[in-house]
Each structure stands twice: as C-alpha cells, then as structure tokens.
C-alpha cells in the first residue's frame, strides 16, 4: 500500500486558558489516523466533539499538544507539522494542503475574480501572462459555481453569505492540492450549488486528492464519503 | 533521494539576544528572531513593550547594548549591522532598506515637492537625469494612488493618508529588500487605513520584499503578516504563524492580547 498523505499518531489537543484560572480544555486525545490518496473521510459526531479542531490541527492553525502529524508534500517529502518551522508551513499551505472554511476572510478592495485567482500566482511569477492564465481559470470556477459575471470585478465584502461561500470554495479548490480539509463547505448553499460542490469534491477524489471533511447535511456526507469515523472515539477519558 | 534545495539557504535578517536599556529601564531583553526573504513579520505588543526599540535596533537607528543583528548582503554574506561603519549603514538605509515612520513628517521632507521626495534616494545613488527622475516619480505616485498632477506640490498640502502613501513611494523607489514600518496605519481614519493596508499588501507581494512591521493592531497583522512576534516588557514571549497566534495563542500575554480586541 502507498504511504498515506496524512498520518496522525497519538495526537492530543488541549487548550489552557490562562485567564480563567488556568482551566484546561481537553478536546482530542489519542488520535491515530491515516488518510490516503483518493479517499474522502467524513468526520461524524455531535458539535463540540472536536471535528473542526481536528481539521485545524492538520492545517497547523492550532498547535498540537501531543503526538505527530505528518503530511506528504507535493514534492514527495514528508513534513512533520508539529515541528515544522513557519516557512515550511507557509509552503505546505501554498502547495499541499487546502482548507475550505465556512467563511470567506474578505480582503478589502480586491475583486472576486482576483480573490479566486490569487492562489495560482506563485510569488516571483506574477507577470501579466501568469495573471491572465490565473484569471481565466478563475472565470471558469466562478461560472461553474454560478457567480453572476457582473459581480466578478467587485470585492466580495458586500456579497450574500452563499455567494461568499462559493467564492471561498473556488479560491480554496482552484489549485489542485493533494490534501483538502473541508469544514462545512455547503452550510449556506442552495440545492443546486450544493450539488455542484458535491461534484467538485468527487472530482478531487477522482484525481487522487485525499479529503477530510465535516458536513452538517447528511445527504452531502453520504454523497462524498469513502469512509467515515466518529470523532467521539478521540475524546479523552478525563 | 535528494534533499530539496531551499531557494534561500540563510535568513535575510538574524537577530540574536538583543538587549538594550535606557538608564535603569530595560527596553529589550534577549530578543531573538529571524526574517526570511519575502517574509512579512509583525511585531505586536502594548505600548512600552519594546517593539519600537527593537525595530530601531534592527534598522541601525539605535545601538543595542548586547546581542547581534546580521543582514544578508547582496553577495550572500551575513554582516553584523552594528559592526558596520556609519557610511555603510547609511548606504544600506537608502538602498536595500526602507523605513516607514508612524508620522509621515518624520519620513518626508515636508517643504519640497512630492516628486523630489520620491527622487531623493535615486539622486543619492547618482541618478542625475531630470526627465528620468521625474518619470520614475510619476510612476511611483501612480502606484501609490496619488494623482501625478500633484508631483510639484509639497506634502504639507497632502492629507494624512496621502502623506503616508508618499512616504511608502519614497522608500520603495529603490526596490529595497527589507522595509521597516513603525505603526504605519495608526492615526489614520479607518477607510484610509484600509486603502493603505491593501496597497501595502499588494506591493509586498508584487515586489517580494521582506517587511518588519510594528503594530498594536492585530487586524493589521492578520491582513499583512505571515508571522507574528509578540513582545511584553522587552521580551519576545511568543512567535508563530499569524493565524496560529491569533486563533490558538499559548502564552498568557498573547491570550490576553487576543481576547481584548473585537474580532481581529
């Protein structure tokens, strides 16, 4: 069997709240988990169980309290993100790991088309040709996700929740990264657009990406899952 | 299997155990961090935490009592900034470095024209061709969104936001590899701030500059910086990716800082 794209071993996450008498929240414990290319792992469990926390640990947004998280990068090397230096994490996010959150973090004054195109622009290669190629790809994504063309040049700050979420999906998926983390990507989408996102997820799996996601809507989860786990099993006994 | 070749084998700036005191007052205690080419690092902390003192020692505007600050020269050698002669420091400051002050009046010549403000660094490097200097100045005014029709006006007649943008043009005209910024957006109206921040974000990306920005505004750090350095009472108490520090702060002081603002 091939090496997994994601390997989590003995991972625990605790939050220490120094200003609430040092209270300790133990969210996850003894997470052992492998994720391979072509898999879509759906995380189940009631809210507050640590599903989002698990995704944030893999994205290195949260820092791991215990254990190891290894990600196989697009160049074939393995990065232990629990010990990686920030530059390696920046590169990992650029090339290897995509994260689709529920909400778009709006950048003032940048139009929707460029918000979506931006991940395709490598630092130091931002000439006019590269920009046009990235914008052309972005146009296709926006079309597919049914963002009306009159909105493309406008900054998404004033868009509806559903429109912002679709901009975010396009921005997060436009670059074909090997590992994708999805945190309720269809939360505020209508049926038609939800169906499109299901198709996009299945296409990513088909091209060999590894996906791990949280889907509040059971139909979406059922339509994309190749495997499911209940995150409750990673709750600490204490 | 071959090891990956890192495009930059050494940092642009290496800061080791820098300390400084003013009389009995300790301003910096053993501050250390590294900055890599193209990286934007925000130094955050409350007033009096030592962040501006740190910035000034990095930029050779103040001498540390101990510790070392090395800068990667164009020849690939790391050089101790404070072991250089003043002439070498001045040359660095007007070629490979930039410094954007909180108060534009500290970084601009308020009574000479906007064009002359932008052209000054180029002239100090020997450019004398008036037409060329003027063309470059016009180009830079446009890049920082100042109407070139204002090229002959003195910054004294500019609004606060325009002055700050002019200060940026004046610094970036020599394409520095490293720019220091001391609270560049504080004191501006919110809408003016957003425009300046967006401009800074675009320019740092386009030019692949490294930036050390001192700010007390975590939203500024969130928008611009890859990494953050948190300072408290002259010490670096936590460093990490910007979103790590804002979303999962570890140190008690960082937790206090993050929980004290409304949605950074």
Fold blueprint:
The complex is a heterodimer of chains A (238) and B (264).
Chain A: E1 6-17, E2 23-35, E3 40-44, H1 51-58, E4 66-72, E5 78-80, H2 86-95, E6 97-100, H3 112-117, H4 128-144, H5 161-173, E7 179-183, H6 191-206, E8 210-214, H7 218-224, E9 227-230
Parallel strand pairs in A: 3-8, 3-9, 6-7, 7-8
Antiparallel strand pairs in A: 1-2, 1-4, 4-5
Chain B: E1 13-22, E2 25-35, E3 40-44, H1 51-58, E4 66-72, E5 78-80, H2 86-94, E6 97-100, H3 104-107, H4 114-124, H5 130-143, H6 160-172, E7 178-182, H7 190-207, E8 210-214, H8 218-224, E9 227-232, E10 235-241, H9 242-247, H10 252-259
Helix pairs in contact in B: 4-5, 4-6, 5-6
Description:
The complex is a heterodimer of chains A (238) and B (264). With 238 residues, chain A is of the alpha/beta class. Chain A has a single domain (6-108, 161-166, 173-234), classed as P-loop containing nucleotide triphosphate hydrolases (Rossmann fold), CATH 3.40.50. Chain A is built from seven helices and nine strands, in the order βββαββαβαααβαβαβ. Chain A has helices at residues 51-58, 86-95, 112-117, 128-144, 161-173, 191-206, 218-224, and strands at 6-17, 23-35, 40-44, 66-72, 78-80, 97-100, 179-183, 210-214, 227-230. In chain A, the strands form two sheets. Chain A has a five-stranded parallel sheet with strand order 6-7-8-3-9. In chain A, strands 2-1-4-5 form a four-stranded antiparallel sheet, covered by helices on one side. In chain A, a hairpin with a 5-residue loop joins strand 1 (6-17) and strand 2. Chain B is α/β, with parallel strands linked by helices and 264 residues long. Chain B has two domains: 32-96 and 176-264, Rossmann fold, CATH 3.40.50; 109-175. Chain B has ten helices and ten strands. In chain B, the strands form two sheets. Chain B has a six-stranded mixed sheet, with helices on both faces. Chain B has a four-stranded antiparallel sheet with strand order 2-1-4-5, with helices on one face. In chain B, helix 5 (130-143) crosses helix 6. The longest helix of chain B is centred in the C-terminal third of the chain and has 18 residues, at 190-207. In chain B, 45% of the residues are buried. The model of chain B is unreliable at 1-6 (pLDDT under 50). Classes of the chains: A alpha/beta (238), B alpha/beta (264). At the A-B interface, strand 1 and helix 2 of A face helix 7, strand 10, helix 9 and helix 10 of B.
């Amino acid at each position: 069997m091939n090496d997994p794209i994601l390997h989590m071993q003995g991972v625990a996450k605790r939050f220490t709240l120094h200003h609430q008498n040092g209270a300790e929240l133990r969210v996850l414990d003894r997470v052992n988990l492998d994720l391979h290319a072509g898999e879509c792992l759906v995380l189940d469990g009631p809210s507050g169980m640590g599903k989002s926390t698990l995704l944030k640990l893999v994205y290195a947004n949260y820092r791991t309290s215990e254990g190891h998280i290894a990600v196989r990068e697009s160049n074939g090397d393995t990065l232990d993100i629990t010990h990686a230096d920030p530059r390696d994490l920046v590169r990992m996010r650029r090339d290897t790991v995509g994260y689709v959150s529920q909400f778009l973090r709006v950048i003032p004054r940048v139009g929707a088309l460029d918000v979506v195109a931006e991940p395709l622009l490598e630092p130091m290669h931002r000439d006019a040709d590269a920009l046009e190629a990235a914008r052309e790809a972005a146009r296709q994504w926006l079309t597919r996700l049914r963002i009306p063309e009159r909105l493309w040049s406008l900054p998404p700050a004033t868009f509806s929740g559903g429109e912002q979420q679709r901009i975010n999906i396009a921005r997060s998926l436009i670059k074909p990264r090997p590992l994708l983390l999805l945190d309720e990507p269809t939360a505020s989408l209508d049926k038609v657009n939800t169906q499109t996102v299901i198709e996009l997820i299945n296409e990513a799996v088909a091209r060999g990406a590894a996906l791990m996601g949280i889907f509040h809507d059971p139909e979406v989860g059922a339509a994309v899952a190749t495997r499911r786990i209940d995150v409750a099993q990673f709750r600490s006994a204490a | 299997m071959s090891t990956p070749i890192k495009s930059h084998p050494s940092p642009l700036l290496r800061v080791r155990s820098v300390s400084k005191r003013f009389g009995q007052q300790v301003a910096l205690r053993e501050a250390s961090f590294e900055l890599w080419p193209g990286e934007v690092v925000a130094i955050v902390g409350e007033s009096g935490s030592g962040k501006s003192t740190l910035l000034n020692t990095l930029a050779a505007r103040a001498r540390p009592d101990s510790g070392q600050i090395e800068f990667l020269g164009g020849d690939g050698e790391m050089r101790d900034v404070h072991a250089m002669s003043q002439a070498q420091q001045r040359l660095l400051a007007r070629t490979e470095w930039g410094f954007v002050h909180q108060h534009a009046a500290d970084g601009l010549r308020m009574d000479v024209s906007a064009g002359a403000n932008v052209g000054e660094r180029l002239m100090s490097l020997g450019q004398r061709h008036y037409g060329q200097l003027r063309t470059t100045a016009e180009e830079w005014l446009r890049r920082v969104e100042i109407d070139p029709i204002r090229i002959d006006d003195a910054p004294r007649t500019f609004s606060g936001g325009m002055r700050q943008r002019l200060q940026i043009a004046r610094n970036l005209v020599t394409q520095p590899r490293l720019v220091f910024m001391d609270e560049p957006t504080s004191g501006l109206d919110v809408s003016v701030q957003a425009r300046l921040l967006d401009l800074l974000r675009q320019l740092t990306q386009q030019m692949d500059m490294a930036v050390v920005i001192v700010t007390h505004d975590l939203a500024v750090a969130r928008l611009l910086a890859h990494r953050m350095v948190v300072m408290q009472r002259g010490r670096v108490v936590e460093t990490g990716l910007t979103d790590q520090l804002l979303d999962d702060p570890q140190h008690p002081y960082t937790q206090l800082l993050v929980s004290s603002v409304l949605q950074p």
